[in-house]
Amino acid sequence: MSSLATSIPAGSWILVTGASGFLASHVCLQLLERGFRVRGAVRDPTQSSWLLEGRFKRYADVGAIELVSVPPLGTDGAFDEAIRGVAAIIHTAYVANIVPDPNDVITPMVAGIRSIMNAAIREPSVKEVVFTGSAIAASPLAPGIDNGTIGRDSWNDAALEAAWAPPPYGLSHVMANYPASKVAAEKEVWDFVGRHDLHFNVNVVSPAGLTGEPLNKKHIEGLANWVVHAYRGNKAVMDSLQASFYGDVKDVALIHVAAALDPEVKNARLQSWGHSSHWNEILAILRRLRPQKEFVDDYPDAHHLKLSVDQAESVALLNKWSTKRAKNGWTSLENSIAENITNPYLED
Fold it and tell me: Torsion-angle region of residue 267: left (phi > 0), alpha (psi -120 to 50) or beta?
């Protein structure tokens, strides 16, 4: 356990939504390791029972982690019961629908923010609320153009315009709905903060791509497990996103934990993107790690995204709250990729 001062006492219950996800499962584990109790909100506790086994079992055996079922995000009062008695909320859940109608993606995402916030207002035990945002909410991360300097007031409003373009809904809406939902959800967070006199603090942590150790097989198979696409040579996905930013999942989880526990972090919008990289750099790392395996050829025109983003506050939190790692900022991309592909779930 850390000796750092915390905004809530050790042993407090913390609600983590979407607890079985790649990022959220690491958030849960790190909270447990620091002496906090975790209530994991999931759609189906039976399918998420692995959160009570393996590395989680010793915590489950003493009642430090429990799973609760919650309805879909857009449901009114979805989190009213789950929030009872918790000192903090870390809301990582999002609408995963890949559909053309923005009303099926953006609308429930925003409704989920309102549901969490309204439930927190009614629960006096809540002191901290952390939301998982996204780099795509601040910038389109577009290749070949200058994306500028990302600041506190940077928003990817073009995604909202594309998603809410008039029907008929088609492929362009499908592509725009997820980033638009992240823009709309985070804007709702800050609008809600501005409209209400809250008895709790609110922070947002915004990652880009995630790499690192999966805790369950489904984390390998997800669409957003970028390293696995390169490992398997999935060019259809690779071609669409040749350059991006990647942060280790444990680092991003730790920033979430710090955002909930650090009494000095208030009203923060933490851009937590990690390393700027191109597929050619990731492929070079994979070749070093797996010299016996053949990978797809390098891209002929390697480039990085043109933008500037200040991650100083996120890096400072990594260094402050780290307990098991060198205090030098982000885990290296090579070490993170090594953990991404060295696990019992990924087959050659």
Answer: left
Are the CB atoms for 324 and 253 separated by under 8 Å? no
Instruction: Give the three-state DSSP class for 244.
Output: strand
Both tokens of 105, joined, read 């993606």
Nearest in space to 216 (alpha carbons), one of 29, 65, 17, 39? 29
Q: List the domains of the chain with CATH numbers.
A: 13-212+248-275+308-324 (3.40.50.720)
H/E segment holding residue 132? strand 128-132
Angle, CA of 40, 109 and 44, to the nearest 5°: 35
CA–CA–CA angle 90, 321, 250 (5° rounding): 60
pLDDT tens digits for 163-190?
999 999 999 999 999 999 999 999 999 9
- 264-293 as b/e: b if 16+ CB within 10 A: ebeebbbbbbbbbbbbbbbbebbeeeeeee
Q: Which of 166, 164, 163, 134 is nearest to 150 (CA)?
A: 134
Residue with tokens 């790392």: 285
Residue type, 6: T
pTM, entire model: 0.97
Q: Which two tokens stand for residue 300?
A: 């002929």
Q: Which two tokens stand for residue 152?
A: 């506190």
